[in-house]
Amino acid sequence: MLKKLIQNVKLSLVLLCWPIAFSCHYLDIVPDNVATVDYVFRMRAKAEQYLFTLYSYQPRFTESYNYLTFLGGDELWGNDYNVNVSMPAWQIARGFQNIVDPYSNYWGGTRGGRGMFVAIRDCNTFIENIDKVPDMDDYEKTRWKAEAKFLKAYYHFFLFRMYGPIPLVDKNIPISSGPAEVKVWQSPVDSCVNYIAALLDEAAVDLPDLIANEATELGRATKSIALSVKAQLLVTGASPLFNGNSDYAEIVNKKGEHLYSRTVDPAKWARAAEACRVAIEQCHAAGMKLYYQNPAFIPFKVSDQTVTEMSIRNAVCMKWNSEIIWASTNNRAGNLQQESLPKLYTGDKQGGALSSFGVPLKIAEQFYTKNGVPINEDITWDYNARYSQRTATNADRLMLKPSYVTAALNFDREIRYYADLGFDGSRWYGNSRFSDSDNVYVEAKLGQISNNHAWAYSMTGYWPKSW
After folding, report:
1. Helix (H, G, I), strand (E, B) or coil at 389
2. How far is residue 166's CA from residue 168's CA, in Å, rounded to a whole number?
């Protein structure tokens, strides 16, 4: 019995020592499924995959899980059935944002957010190593590095726009750094703006004017995109939110630096205006221009008003049209449109019309009258009677259903009102109805087609027609 016990102990010791005896050999071997930096940058194909990973961090605004820019404020309002706690941004609009576990957390990458600092770190890694790739020419390396610089700048800008003063991560912190070295400081607003603008300028020099291979490269950075983001950055930095905002005048970082400018600087607006001019001229030179609907693409002869309406709607909805500077290939805008479409027909013909999002009344009231004047300033428009009822006539048929009773608010408004909003009694051009004489209209009174579903309804009575 004792002999058997000793043999078992010896066997146990041998098994315990096995990893030690062979550990030096094991640690010298990189498993096949583990990528290292040197492995990634040893060939062009792997480096290209890494570059595409940098693009993958772009915020996906139109994924139903997030909808940050749409549901995080009060430009839209969801119905109680379709929009629920699974949409983090919706909790922000409802007043449930918190500092312990924030919704749409792009700082830490939780609650529907994507980790922007992880994205910036990966951009730095790419910039530092792309020159090592042996099977690439210098032009391609330069272009790819410029794309990484652009994305690095964009991710900084995205954080800045959300959080204000942020740490600037120009270089990755070595893994061997001590506690003191990893404690980065918030940079003042002006430092953030200047750093991001300089990085965008640096990237723009080596970015192409146009995407030559549209079949495989649409969505990748160009000079027009970089300069347009710079213009947006400088306008944001010059705005009253950051330019002399007295509410933040005494906010300082841990070093005692004031993070916001304490006085308004008009020169920031001049700089922003110049950046806008440069961006517009670059876009024009690259063939980008305001989108106008080609009547030849409409299967029926329609009125000039309908053509104008479709120019407004399709500037957003027509894929890769002349007005688009940068379209993200990660987004699923079709899902968002589906969420916003009212029921227009009986039966199951519109099973995909989820009708989740409504446009608040305050947004509807911001559109102008047909005279191009705010509704509370147009002396020919009865502002005080805007909530009264009025009956549409045949002359209104391209905007409203004839002989239909709806709110006076919906009459005599600018063309953008009818192009962008659906509401009780409004024409919804399209949906297999392309003739001015064969129209489909929204009917949203209680019990009618657009308001007769347990889950597909607008909380406000208004729907967004296009994005």
Report:
1. strand
2. 6
Q: Is 154 exposed, middle or buried (0-12, 13-18, 19+ CB in 10 A)?
A: buried
β-pair partners for 71 = none
Helix (H, G, I), strand (E, B), or coil: what is residue 352? coil
Q: Domain segments of the chain: what residues?
A: 40-59+114-288, 297-464
| Structure token pair of residue 309 | 């309406």
- Write the single-letter amino acid at 44: R
Q: Residues 293, 297, 301, 307: what is their CA dihedral angle, to the nearest 10 degrees?
A: -10
Other CB atoms within 10 A of residue 280 CB: 15
Contact yes or no for 440/339 (Cβ under 8 A): no
Separation of alpha carbons 409 and 394, rounded Å: 18
Report helix angle 138-163 to 116-129, nearest 10: 160
Instruction: Report the topology of domain 40-59+114-288.
Output: 1.25.40
Confidence of residue 414 (pLDDT cuts 50, 70, 90): very high
Question: Which tokens is 120 given?
Answer: 């910036």
Q: Report the candidate in 216, 237, 58 with the shortest Cα–Cα distance to residue 151.
A: 58
What pairs with residue 357 in β-bridges? 78
pLDDT at residue 70 tops 70: yes
The predicted structure's pLDDT at residue 331: 60
pLDDT at 11 over 80: no
- Across the range 151-171, mean pLDDT stands at 97
User: Taking a C-beta distance cutoff of 8 angstroms, is the pair 345, 449 a contact?
Assistant: yes
Kindly report, residue by residue over 319-372, the tens digit of the pLDDT: 889 999 998 776 666 677 778 889 888 765 666 788 888 999 999 999 999 999
Whether 4 has a pLDDT exceeding 70, the answer reads no
DSSP H helical ranges for 130-253? 138-163, 189-205, 214-217, 223-238
Taking the whole predicted model, whether its pTM rises above 0.85 is answered as yes
Concatenated DSSP letters of 354-374? ---EE--HHHHTTSBBTTSSB
CA dihedral 257, 259, 264, 268 (to 10 degrees): 110
